[in-house]
Amino acid sequence: MNGVPDTPKLEIQMLHDRVLVRLSQEEGERRSSGGIVIPATAQVARRLVWGDVLGVGNSVRNVKHGDRVLFNPEDQLEVEIQGEGHLVMRERDIHAVATERTEHGTGLYL
User: Fold this and answer.
1) Where are the beta strands (DSSP E) in 43-83?
2) Is 30 left (phi over 0), alpha (psi -120 to 50) or beta?
3) Do 68 and 99 meet the contact criterion of CB atoms below 8 Å apart?
């Protein structure tokens, strides 16, 4: 043993209407539909981003674990879990859900 007591692993359970999200790795420069490269530093308007849902509270109705969600990252709380940054938000702060389970979709796909 290395002298450090074993700490039990604790499972994280989200409460109420909270959602735990990991940012998708799509940050950085992007390309417009016309082929123009847009650098990551370009700030035209507030930009919504996609993230992957890792956990949901018991009051969350429209989002499930594994869904991809669209939201404004500037309005969320950040937490570090196992050295990796995650965001905590309310379900009402999510603008869209990309999922295979669709009932009232837009007809657009990622």
Assistant:
1) 49-56, 68-71, 77-81
2) beta
3) yes
How far apart (Å, rounded) are the C-alpha atoms in residues 70 and 10? 28
If phi > 0 it is left, if psi is from -120 to 50 it is alpha, else beta; for residue 35 that is left
Sheet holding 18-23, edge to edge: 77-81, 84-90, 18-23, 49-56, 68-71, 94-98
Assess contact for 67 and 99: CB atoms under 8 A. yes
DSSP label at 4?
P
Task: Fill in the amino acid letter for 16.
Answer: H
Instruction: Note the pLDDT tens digit of each residue in 43-54.
Output: 556 788 899 999
Read off the pTM. Answer: 0.70
Cα–Cα distance measured from residue 75 to residue 48, given in angstroms and rounded to the nearest whole number: 11
